[in-house]
Write the C-alpha cells for this entry.
Amino acid sequence: MRPGAGGGLLVAAAMTLHDLTSCAVCTQPATQQCDACQLVAYCPGEHEEQHRAKCPAYKVLTNVAVGRFAVAARDLAAGESIFSELPVAVGPKADSSPLCLGCHGLVDGSASCSRCGWPVCGPGCEDSPVHAAAECEVFRAAGVAFQPPQDWTETCCQMECVTPLRLLLSREKCPGRWTREVDAMQSNDERRRDLDAWRAEQVNVVGFLRDRCGLADRFDEQSIHRACGLLEVNAFEIRMVAGTTIRGLYPQTAILSHNCVANTSHTITPQSDYRLTLRATVAVPRDAELFSSYTYSLDPTMVRRQHLSSGKFFDCRCERCRDPTELGTHLGSLKCNKCDPGLILASDPLDPGAAWRCTHCEFSTSGAAAARVMQVVREEAAALDWLPPGEEAVEAREKLWRKYRSVLHPRHSVVTGARLALSQLYGRAEGYHLDELPDILLERKADICRDLLAVADVVEPGLTRLRGMTLYELHAPVMVFAKHRHDYGEISAAEFRAKLEEAAAILQEAVRILLLEDPLTPEGAVGRVAEQSLQQLRASIASLAA
C-alpha cells in the first residue's frame, strides 16, 4: 500500500498486452480493437462479444514515485465490480486475543484441536483446511502446545505467529502465485527494523517458528520478518460473522494506492473462501487512478496521517490531507475562544509541528497543543463505545456533544462520531424505539442523519457502507414524522404521499448500496430488511393513490 501515484512519470505497464494485430480469441488477423480497455483486438461478432464479457476493468502501471498502481481500463459505473480475488493467507491479527484457528471466532479454552492442541471450537473447525492444512501440521510435528492464557479476552502473543506462518507455507504450496503477485509487494523491513514491533516479532514469530517449531531449515529470519512486514503493510481487515476481526493478504487489491477519499470499496466473504470483491463506489473515467483507503474516513487528518506513518510507513499527501478544512468538512477544526466566528486550523496539515491559527483573529497555538486537545476529546469519546445501547449511551453522547460545543467545529470528527452513534441509537436503543420517539426526536434523528450524510458525501462518497446505513436510518423518521403530521391534520393526503415518496427514494438508494454487501454482514442483513421495507412502503404509497 502506497500514497497516490499523483501523475508521476509512467514507466511501464505491469501486465501483458495482447498483439493488437491479432484476435485475442482465435489469433487470426484482427480488424477491431477494444475501445474500452484498449488492450485487446478481436474479430467482430462472436469474438467481440466473448471479450466484452471479460474485458478487464483495470490495468496496472508503474511510475518512479510509487511503483505499481492501478487505473481504470475503461469507464466504470458506480457499483461496478472491478475484480475479485482469493487471499494468499488469512488469520489472526498480531494483537489478537485467542481465536478458533478454524472459524476465527472467540474461544474460551473449552475445546482444542485433537491433533495439535491449539484453540478451535470443535471437530468441525479443527478439520477446516485453513488450519488443518497449515499450522496444525507444523505444531503437531514439533510438539508445540498452546499455553492457556489467564484471560482469554486479552491479547495473546501466541496468536502472532499464526498468520505469518500461513503466509510462508503458501509460498511453498503456491510458488507460482508468489512469483507473480507477492514478490513485488513492499514489506518496509528497513523502516520496521528499529521498532518495538520488530523486536517483539523476533521473539514471538521468528524465534518461535525457527527454534520451537523446528523450521530453521525451511525459513530464514529475513523471510519470516518479510512475511510479518507484508502483512503489517498490506493486509486488509476481515470482519467475521462472530464479530471478530482478522486479516488477509490480497495482492491485487494492495496494488491500489491509498487515498483518504477512495473511489473503490471492497467486500470480503468469509464463507466463500474469504473472496474479496472490489467495486467502484463512484463513476470512474477511463485512465483515472483507482484508490482504496487504509484509514477510517471520519478520522481527522492528524489521526489518519499518524496511523499511516506508523503502521503503513508512508506519509499521505492526498488532496484531503493537504487541505486545512479537509475539503470543507472541518473534521479536525477547532473553535476559537478569542473571537466568535473564528476557526482554528492547521497552517500546514502535512507538518505535525506547524502552528494552528484562527481564521478571524491573531490567536495561534502549537501543533502539539492542538494534538493534546484532540487526544483528550477522542479518549473521552472512545470510552462511550463500551456503554450498552440504551438510555445511558444516548444521554452520554448528547452530553459530550453539548460539553464541547464551544471547542469543536459542529462537524468535528468527535461530534460526527457522536452523530453516527446517535443515528442508530435513536430508533433502536431501549427507551428510544422508533414508535416511542416524540416528534422532536424524530426530527432530531433526521437532522443527525442529514448532517452525517453531508460529511459522508465528501469523505466517503457514492455507494459506500456509511452512506447506505445512514440513508437507511434516515428514511424511518422521514416516514414516521410525516404520518404523525398527516394524522394531526397538519399536511394533506397529497403532501403525505409526497413525503412517503421521499422516504421511498431514500430507502431505494440505501437498498442499492447495502445489497452489494455480504448478506451475513450487518450491512448486508440490513440491506435485505430494507428491500422488504421498500416493497411495503411502495405498496402503501400505491394504496394512497387508489
Observations:
- Residues 426-545 form one domain.
- The chain has three domains: 10-86+253-292, 89-249, 426-545.
